[in-house]
């Protein structure tokens, strides 16, 4: 072999071994190792299919940062490929980076792909993010591209109109839509946008007319029927709205989700009888959806029939509305000065639904706290933990409550019990490690680091754990190493606490403009930002 000629085509021994290891790792469920193996070989051989396979493995790993690394490699190897661009846009949305998500979508549009910019604008509007930078960037794109040069140019126009209307430029949005109408009056999306913007402006007549135009172009389109119903309700024409919703239901027989959505629409407008007429067939069916019982409970509660409401709330089966129904029922009784009845109700529910025992205890604790009965809440927790001493969820809850009162010893005792019984409880490891780092107990910082490294090994994709690791390294006097962890955490979950940590470390590293930008973003993104406020009190120069 020493005298063998070099391999110039295909795989050498290292490449073959790495790919086989990656393949076997994927089959064993070690998706991180599989992903890294595929990506290493994709970069070495400039092989797009290997990056694609690495991305597939990363999607199974539940590690958002690993997935982003894989998709990024795929995109670098094949910049014109549609799939990685769409994935990168989606990942940017997941971490709340709307500017980056827009850039990815615009890159798709430049390639002639349908970038779903109008949908993007609606999502941005619902998210509460700052729309001005998005509007400005989309405006640059439209100024650079003329109508007719891209097959989905109208999509960008509709998105721009939505952003303009939402940022106080309604007249400009209307003019933009009018120009689009001259050449594209056949587009259902045009009338959909017109109707939606009119409803948001409380112009029910204009919304109704736009919805009718859209329905004429796209007969039977449920979106226009729903918009017509909304416009009629806004105008007070309940009977007309019911005619439209009846048409919808006739065309979607057996669609329980549609019934629920329409019932919510009537409830939002205060039309209880119309909502009840939609829900009664559902609650009496052979397979009633839990949401129907929840909504019937809200109707009965609104009408002052509390005992009937309680019966409906109790029938909400385990699922997405289960805890909300119990919370609403108990809160309803408390508001009626029936605290004892509320507590009895929750106690019975714990017996009926043993799999939700911990959640229902936590719910009662929360309601007692809100009612100013902290002593009763503590007694409840202690009593239930005496019966189920290894309940990790209740131990964690008591630990957090104890810490809020400044009792580190009590918190550590409960978290320690969790960790002793379950050394793989990453949440408990992270909570204890972060707390030791945050109080800056210099004698226990190494212990905190070890706890957090154990947590990270269990959940390597957790931004909360990465934030904790960054913070403990900062406390240990290593801001350079802290920065990498905090940047990864912030990229994955840009909340205000991680932003405060990142900004402080950037400041210490004398990267002050970057630190101020992080603070500015956090202030703009979050209505409440106590950690940022604390940081600005300590370092006023960080204010943007």
What does the model show?
39% of the residues are buried. Helix content is 75%, strand content 0%. It contains 31 helices and no strands.
Features:
544 residues, mainly alpha, single chain, 75% helix
- State the total count of DSSP E strands: 0
The biggest beta sheet is recorded as: none
List the total number of helices. Answer: 31
Low-confidence regions: none
Secondary-structure class: mainly alpha
Proportion of residues in extended strands: under 5%
Show the helix and strand layout.
Elements: H1 13-28, H2 31-45, H3 48-59, H4 64-77, H5 82-94, H6 98-110, H7 117-127, H8 132-144, H9 153-166, H10 170-184, H11 188-200, H12 204-217, H13 222-234, H14 238-251, H15 256-268, H16 272-283, H17 290-302, H18 306-314, H19 322-335, H20 339-352, H21 357-370, H22 374-387, H23 392-404, H24 408-421, H25 426-438, H26 445-458, H27 463-475, H28 479-492, H29 496-508, H30 512-525, H31 530-538
Summarize the model shown.
By secondary structure, the chain is mainly alpha-helical. It has helices at residues 13-28, 31-45, 48-59, 64-77, 82-94, 98-110, 117-127, 132-144, 153-166, 170-184, 188-200, 204-217, 222-234, 238-251, 256-268, 272-283, 290-302, 306-314, 322-335, 339-352, 357-370, 374-387, 392-404, 408-421, 426-438, 445-458, 463-475, 479-492, 496-508, 512-525, 530-538.
